[in-house]
What we know:
Elements: H1 4-25, E1 34-38, H2 44-52, E2 57-60, H3 63-73, E3 79-82, H4 91-97, E4 100-104, H5 107-116, E5 124-130, H6 146-154, E6 159-166, H7 173-193, E7 200-202, H8 209-214, E8 219-222, H9 224-227
Parallel strand pairs: 1-2, 1-8, 2-3, 3-4, 4-5, 5-6, 6-7
Amino acid sequence: MGDNIHILKQRLREVRDRIRAAEKAAGRSPGEVALLAVSKAQPADAVLAVSGLGQRLFGESYLQEGLEKIQAAGDRDIEWHFIGPIQSNKTRGIAERFQWVQSVDRAKILRRLHEQRPAELPPLNVCLQVNISGEAQKSGAPPERIPELAEAAAGCDRLRLRGVMTIPAPGDGEAGMRAAFARTRELYLSLREAGHGLDTLSMGMSGDLEQAVAEGATMVRVGTAVFGPREG
Ligand SMILES: *Cc1c(COP(=O)(O)O)cnc(C)c1O
């Protein structure tokens, strides 16, 4: 790590400053928006270093890679979020080793996570991923399917439904991005009105966290702005 720790420290501070400034600009309280450090394609050393700087929430997109880092982190105080596409044969590892999964987009996956969550662990925290821009071949359920998925999740006592996650289409420009974030917030609020006790609106990444915070994000998922370019 050596010099690297100074760079990580500075990047982490910059990201925290950006979040703080965005909260302020939106008239929100400091600390309302949580930072998920997305460590996919980053070495375990970098996770340990950033954890040592006081960062607690980490996100991984690939199961095997995530499990290796969870192992490497041992008993450090880290909350692990799975944020990648989920194949059926990957649900067990997620249910057994992660505290959160943010990328659930179908009922079959909900059911498997519920069945596979070990009874001795607290319920697995779940966000439903919505394909808010209607992109073809993209993960996430269409918005109109989200209410029934939320009902299904609410019926699973090994799961705790926390909110909604989205990644808007990159080509939409700033205005399109803001509109997509705003639609996601509407969906989130409509689920709350329907009686779901949600507290997490997960949207915004390295390039667009300001817009997401302006539109009500409670968690931003930031990779490259914290860790630098990904390997490979
Ligand atoms: C990779 C990834 C991120 C982080 O992207 P950056 O642009 O590196 O900040 C956030 N969310 C998801 C779901 C990702 O896969």
